[in-house]
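hey can u run this one w/ magnesium ion bound, need the structure tokens asap thx
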Amino acid sequence: MEERTEIEKLGEFGLIDHLTENFETFNASTTLSIGDDAAVIDHFGKQTVITTDLLVEGVHFDLMYTPLKHLGYKSVIVNLSDIFAMNAQPTQITMSIAFSNRFSLEALEEFYLGVQIACEKYGVDLIGGDTSTSQKGLVISVTAIGEVAPDKYVKRSTAESGDLICVSGDLGAAFLGLTLMEREKKIFLENPQVQPTLENEDYIVGRLLRPEARKDIIDYLTEQEITPTAMMDISDGLSSDILHICKQSNLGCRIYEEKIPINEATKAAAFKFGLDPTVCALNGGEDYELLFTMKQSDYDKITLQEEISVIGYMCDKEEGTKIITKGNNVFDINAQGWNAFSK
Ligand code: ADP
Ligand code: MG
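ok here u go:
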């Protein structure tokens, strides 16, 4: 039997102390951390970037196939990704949780271990949060705080006609990981004796359960002195996210299907499920890659960077938001309904 310690044994303050005792402080900007009514941050002349995300059990995650350590990690990562998408560097997070008596101390320890691994990897300080009970299910709210040199933050609304459209990494894998886990869950619920068959699916499952935030890309762009003209992270899928940049920048776009980066493992999984990999990349969410636009004159600086793909360009609004397929057909980009485009 696994050990199970009821939370009541520690009380709320004991619990917070216990869960946060192994967290280090990495940033000089963290002036006062956990333990008082509020934390104090001093960004020494830099601008402050703030973002918040709420994760609700049964809506945003399924504990049947999400290990708590991975969930802790991912709940930090999705927020750091938003900070990087502003061209900023994350420095602090707060973590608030509400949980039912279904959760033991050991379960919360697992969750906080994932939080800690993410904080250490990205050099971010946990500076506070809130703890509550819930009647049913787990609710997680993370706020991330970051810093950026004055007026160097990058918005969605500032792309210009002729700018190149770039994405980091590859797309569609997290959606296929989710499709696979949902299928295995269904099989398990119908027949609990059947063991899940996840062989050769490490890549897509990893992309779902253990995403990374693209600090490496922001650091690379900074090194190369490239300031994106507009940027966001891809959380809802490429098609819906590029439409945000188009709408907010008051422009149109052209995207080339053949330029969309898709991993071989993602393609293989898509074919297995009878799905079009391009449709998965366009509509599947949760890849947490960066989508940005930049001036054509910066193109030479990224040709050797394999983690950045140029997938198209921005154009005038009147020219519409379109994708050019491998077969040279031209389709309107829709936030959903991509099946219309399957061949
Ligand atoms: P208050 O009563 O003012 O809300 P709390 O007793 O909830 O204060 O919190 C005490 C300290 O512990 C504060 O610094 C708070 O930010 C921090 N804290 C509370 N819950 C968590 C948590 N789940 N994770 C990290 N820090 C927490
Ligand atoms: Mg509180």
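The domain at 164-332 is CATH 3.90.650.10 (Phosphoribosyl-aminoimidazole Synthetase; Chain A, domain 2). anyway lmk if its weird
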